[in-house]
Amino acid sequence: MLKRPEQDEYAAYFDYYIGLVPEGDLQTILTQQGERQVALFSSLAPEQIDYRYAPGKWTVKEVLGHLIDAERIMSYRLLRIARGDQTPLAGFDENAFVEHGCFQRRDLSDLVEEYKAVRASTIAQVRGISPEAWLRTGLANGNKLSARTLAYVIAGHEAHHRTILKDRYLG
Length: 171
What we know:
The chain has 171 residues and is mainly alpha-helical. The protein has helices at 15-19, 26-42, 46-49, 60-82, 94-101, 108-128, 147-169; strands spanning 137-140, 143-146. It has a single domain (27-169), classed as dinb family like domain (Four Helix Bundle (Hemerythrin (Met), subunit A), Up-down Bundle), CATH 1.20.120. The radius of gyration is 16 Å and the shape is globular.
């Protein structure tokens, strides 16, 4: 079972996301999160998917698009660091990604299918990483972090946005 990262493996910024991940097997947590997200997004009424809780905030569809993009990026970083690549990895502008992702033009069912594919890929990636690779560190967006930190951040980021969806969009 993959252990929670130690605080010396990441910048303090990531404490919040890591703290949102419950105790337990990370693969199981990722699987259960994915199933819950698919059920949540698949249950939404048409009027809910284009809802913004405030001007300038993302719609529900855009939140899903952001989850897809962010998980892809974090999984890519995880791969690079786990494989021992020491090239500093650039950050990304999440708002620009959402703007240029054109998620509002896509069917929700298509986004849900893409989300399922990305999450399945992440779970397979996590399953295939060797024990020693989890402890390798690299730089992403100017922050030192280990491979296992990224795996936990993926789960924590998902939990963060699920809470926002429930509290601000669907509450």
